[in-house]
Amino acid sequence: MPLPFPLKRRGLLFVLSSPSGAGKSTIARLLLGSDDGIALSVSATTRPMRPGEEHGKDYFFVTDAEFDRMVEAGEFLEWAHVFGRRYGTLRSEVMRTIEGGQDVLLDIDWQGTQQLKQVDPDIVRVFILPPSMDELERRLRSRGTDSEDVIQSRMTRAAAEISHWAEYDYVLINNDVEKCRELVHNILKAERLKATRRIGLHDFVRGLIG
Known about the structure:
Subcellular location: Cytoplasm
EC number: 2.7.4.8
Enzyme class: transferase
Strand content: 15-25%
Oligomer: single chain
CATH class of the domain at 8-41 and 102-209: Alpha Beta
Number of strands: 11
Number of helices: 8
Organism: Allosphingosinicella flava
Order of helices and strands: EEHEEEHEEHEHEHHEHEH
Function: Essential for recycling GMP and indirectly, cGMP.
C-alpha cells in the first residue's frame, strides 16, 4: 500500500578522508558509479589544471587572488592548504544539491572535516586507513609520478592525518578496494534511513496511531 505522502529527506553530507595512497579516490569513484543518489562536490582549487582535467567537472580552477576573494565573501563551507595549494568546498554547490534531496560526497582532509562539522553538525564522516604504512609507501611508489622528496613528504603528512582517525564516525581499513567500497556504501544506505533525516515521518506516524 503506498504511503499517503512521500517521506522526503534532506540530502546528507558524506565525507571521505584518508592519507594520499590509501584508496579514497578510487573508492569515491566506485561509490559514485554504483549509486545515483549521491553526487561529488566539485571543489575550487589554486593548483594548476592537469592534462585531461576539466574546469567545473574535476575542480573549479581559480587564481590565488580569486580564492582570497571567495574566502572573504564566505563562499566556502571549508577550505584548507594541501601541499602548498588551497582547496575549498563551495557553499552554493553543496546547498543546491542537498536541498534537492541528493547526498553530497566530499573528498576532503581532516582540517576541512573539522570546519564542516562546525558549520553543519549533520554530516557523516568516514576515514579510510591503509593496511600498513609499508603498504601505503608501496602504493605511492607504484604510481611512478612523484619524486623521492614528494613521497617522503606524503608519508610524513600521512602519519599526521592518521592521528585524527578518532574524530570520525566510521574508520575502515582498505585491505580490498571492492570490499571497502561495499562497506562505505552500506554506511551511506544506513545513514539515509535514520529517522531524524526523514522529513514528514513524525506526521506519518501520528496519523497511523491517531
